[in-house]
Amino acid sequence: MHRASYRTEPLIPTLWRWIDSMLKQHSQLMVTLLVAADACAIAAAWLLSYYIRFAWLPVDPAKGVPGLGDKFLPMLPLVVTAHLVIFYRLRLYRPRRHHGLLSEARDVIKAFVVAVVAVVVIDYALPATNKISRQFIATYAVVGTSCFALLRVTVRVTLRALRRRGWNRRSAAIVGSGRTAQQLLHALQRNSWTGIEVLYFVDDRARDRPGTLRGLPVYGPLAQLRAITEKSPVDSVFIALSHDQAQRTSDVLAALETSMADVRLVPEISPSYAMRPNLSQLDGVPILSLRQTPLYGWNAILKRSFDLLVGGVCLLIAAVPMVLIALAIKLTSRGPVFYRQRRMGLDGREFSMMKFRTMTVGAETACGPVWARRDDPRRTWIGRFLRRTSLDELPNLFNVLAGQMSLVGPRPERPEFIKRFKQEVPRYMLRHKMKAGMTGYAQVKGYRGDTSLKKRIQHDVHYIKHWSLGLDIRILAQTVGVVWFSKHET
After folding, report:
1. Mean pLDDT over residues 72-101, rounded?
2. What is d(CA 120, CA 293) in angstroms, rounded to the nearest whole number?
3. Residue 201 included in any domain
4. Out of 19, 114, 177, 383, which could bridge 201 as a Cys pair, Cβ 3.0 to 4.6 Å?
5. In a domain, 1, yes or no
6. What is the pLDDT of residue 19?
7. Containing domain of residue 315, as a range?
8. Do residues 325 and 386 make contact, with C-beta atoms less than 8 angstroms apart?
9. Global pTM exceeds 0.85
10. Residue 91 shares a structural domain with residue 238
11. Quick one: DSSP state of residue 95?
12. What secondary structure does DSSP assign to 121-161, as a single string?
């Protein structure tokens, strides 16, 4: 009697293929598992905070250590429920394949901050006998945010690693083969962690193009889109038609009505018109904002807080030098110490910018506003030193604290010059979508004073598009060496 032979596959690859199939076909299961993991993380953080607060941190002997089952365990189900509702409302359970890791961490921290506020509200709503200490809430805010952020980042890193190895991937087709379609392909290939693999293009131009484009087949025409997607099914379809094909969008959408694929629209927008584009909804109507300032919501609070904190410290440090400069100006020339000049800032609002006076009194009265230049004969000898070192701009700190300027941003210009520049320089007015700054990205790159205005605008727009608090810190660090000792003037 011989033993029957069976063909078996290695256990691990078989298991991963099964998991991949589950992830792909039952994404709702993944959401459920994520909600369960979040609930466990919240409960664990709550219990860990209790242990840290009452086992590691000092406790008032008069009050003693409250029992875990007295207040904290009865409150836990309400806390977990409130967290999960807030996370759901803030869209933490939506697919986030297109979001970067930093964006994920930022959204997670925001959501948890809101959840901690909800815990405070719940605590205030409870009877006095059931209230928990503020020290515990502060401990939970730190521990909970850390635990939850670590959990979500771990999940994202794990999913990225799986997708890079070919698991939990989604197939896609791109409708269109123009510049936008090819840029989309490049972006998806460069960000392999999204797990989206483009299989082919579909375009009317298929008959005019070679059989492949960037290594992928080009099928067509668009009129056969439904048949093409039925023959070669995909998980997602990206509509990236060029401007001259935009009128075909409704036909494309109609052809995809019977498809189970996710449909995403990628409009072709010239970079000249788009700056930090953002999609929002108003009563179900999608609205695409092309020129949105990054200073809204938490970003505005973060930048303003940074300006107040760092600006206040800088003003304290600069107080003595500013007094000495004021005395030098007063003793060496006739006239006021400070000079106020109209400048244009955020959204075109004008304000009076403060500087130390570097010119003789009435220097501008005779010839009117002119572009600053080196070795201006109207400038005092102390003024030449202040301009060369940019120390005349220290009073800008008062504008920063008043909220008219920021520490970092496009340098403000005079309204008289803006009337001319906005007609002559493309995209010039885009720089006013950010609060004017004492220093800026263009300045640390050497574009100050009598330099290329076009290059300065390019750098200002680049700064607004890519703004972050980290970029502000980096620019400030470069300012001392690059700007204060530059030979250029503004």
Report:
1. 77
2. 32
3. yes
4. 177
5. no
6. 43
7. 298-482
8. yes
9. no
10. no
11. -
12. HHHHHS-GGG---HHHHHHHHHHHHHHHHHHHHHHHHHHHH
